[in-house]
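can u do me a favor
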């Protein structure tokens, strides 16, 4: 398959179930799929050629209706484990005591904000809370625009930053049918597998500069450069960690702010640091976070430099009915207690290392694994049809995802060509789970690439 052929897949959901193949499935699954379509409409997608019906989760495992166990190497939201007892007890107790919004004095939100802010550099002084990552990015961009008086946003080519009108407008990975804002410019992702640049930071900064120049010529200026420092939807690029500093420099020199989208890479995921941007030695103007923040309870937010929040906060009020409510704060506090108390950052580094080393060893025996990359417990395995031309092989990646699912190990795929296996287990993943994963992966490779 050539790049041109795979490019046609842009916009199609990675690892999305195709309803045209429903006839091959068990009657119970078929019925459930038909019911979903009838009740939920056409916009929802399922994973896997044979979708999984989950009824229960515990730790790193999911269970289906027949009681089969699945090793979950995909769900980063429940980062301290499915149904974590400490988080669940905190949520239940708080729900039984009080659940209300941020217009009353409550210690919970202040205690959590204090602990959370303690994980950032001193320059970042305020925390504000939302329910989703999309809302967090929405708020961050409203603030960035207000602070700079500019409109333009620069993102990477296949970025995903949310599902609201504003954030989907700067989420090119939504595909060709999802409209981008006219104030949005894209730069290529720092694809370390293909880009041959002696200095990747200078390479990226040059491209960001060119887009800022274009925004200026059109009178829009630069409000923000927004990046997920693991470039998750671009295909998982974790290195060179010196790459973001020169980019942030050109953005600030042009009057823009740097928004670090930590929805994927925050809360110890990368192993070496609490926040993904910290690997790059930069301090953002606004940090957005979400997904793992409440271990499944919908809690998200931003952390911001006071000077960026000042005018916005003075001239406008912020209220979010559920964001920062008493229970959300209890969930977030308990989740952070587990991450810090159980030293899950170190676990992410250690077990992520075992997994990456194992995958690298497997790759040495399979030339169609073009690249193994990532940081901590966020890994990408790039499938190619020819290691010389590095031609993306989305068919092989998809076959592997489905073969792993058949072997009851859950992963997915990512990147513009959907040819990068996305491996992103809970932070409590142990070496025994990594071993189990690698055994299944080798067997799946033998089946698929045979
Ligand atoms: C990097 C990134 N930013 C923002 C979001 C949006 O978060 P949410 O789905 O909670 O709105 C996502 C969700 O996948 C994401 O991956």
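np, heres the sequence
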């Amino acid at each position: 398959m050539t790049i041109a052929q795979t490019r046609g897949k842009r916009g199609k959901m990675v690892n999305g179930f195709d309803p045209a193949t429903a006839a091959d499935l068990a009657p119970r699954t078929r019925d459930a799929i038909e019911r979903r379509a009838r009740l939920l409409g056409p916009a929802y997608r399922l994973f896997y050629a044979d979708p999984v019906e989950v009824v229960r989760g515990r730790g790193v495992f999911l269970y289906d209706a027949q009681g089969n166990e699945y090793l979950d190497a995909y769900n980063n939201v429940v980062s301290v484990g499915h149904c974590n007892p400490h988080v669940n007890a905190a949520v239940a107790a708080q729900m039984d005591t009080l659940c209300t919004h941020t217009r009353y004095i409550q210690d919970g939100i202040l205690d959590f904000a204090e602990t959370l802010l303690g994980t950032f550099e001193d320059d970042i002084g305020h925390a504000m809370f939302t329910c989703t990552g999309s809302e967090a990015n929405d708020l961050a961009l409203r603030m960035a625009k207000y602070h700079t008086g500019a409109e333009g946003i620069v993102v990477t080519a296949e970025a995903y930053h949310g599902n609201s009108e504003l954030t989907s407008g700067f989420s090119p990975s939504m595909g060709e049918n999802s409209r981008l804002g006219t104030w949005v410019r894209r730069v290529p992702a720092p694809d370390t597998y293909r880009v041959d640049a002696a200095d990747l930071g200078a390479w990226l900064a040059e491209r960001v500069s060119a887009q800022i120049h274009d925004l200026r010529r059109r009178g829009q200026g630069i409000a923000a450069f927004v990046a997920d420092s693991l470039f998750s939807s671009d295909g998982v690029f974790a290195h060179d960690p010196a790459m973001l500093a020169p980019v942030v420099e050109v953005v600030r020199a042009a009057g823009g702010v740097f928004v670090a989208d930590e929805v994927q890479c925050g809360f110890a995921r990368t192993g070496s640091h609490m926040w993904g941007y910290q690997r790059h030695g930069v301090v953002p103007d606004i940090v957005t976070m979400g997904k793992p923040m409440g271990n499944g309870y919908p809690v998200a937010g931003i952390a911001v430099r006071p000077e960026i929040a000042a005018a916005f906060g003075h001239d406008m009020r912020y209220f979010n009915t559920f964001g920062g409510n008493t229970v959300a704060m209890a969930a977030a506090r308990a989740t952070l207690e587990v991450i810090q108390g159980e030293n899950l950052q170190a676990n992410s580094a250690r077990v992520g290392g075992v997994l990456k080393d194992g995958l690298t060893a497997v790759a040495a025996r399979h030339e169609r694994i073009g690249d193994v990359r990532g940081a901590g417990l966020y890994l990408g395995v790039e499938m190619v049809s020819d290691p010389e031309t590095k031609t993306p092989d989305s068919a092989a990646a998809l076959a592997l995802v489905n073969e792993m699912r058949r072997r009851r190990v859950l992963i997915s795929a990512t990147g513009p060509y959907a040819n990068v296996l996305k491996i992103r287990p809970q932070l409590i993943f142990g070496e025994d789970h990594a071993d189990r994963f690698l055994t299944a992966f080798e067997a799946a490779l033998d089946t698929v690439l045979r």
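The pocket of pyridoxal-5'-phosphate is lined by residues 132-134, 137, 160-163, 228, 232, 261, 263-264, 290, 300 (CB under 6 Å). hope that helps!!
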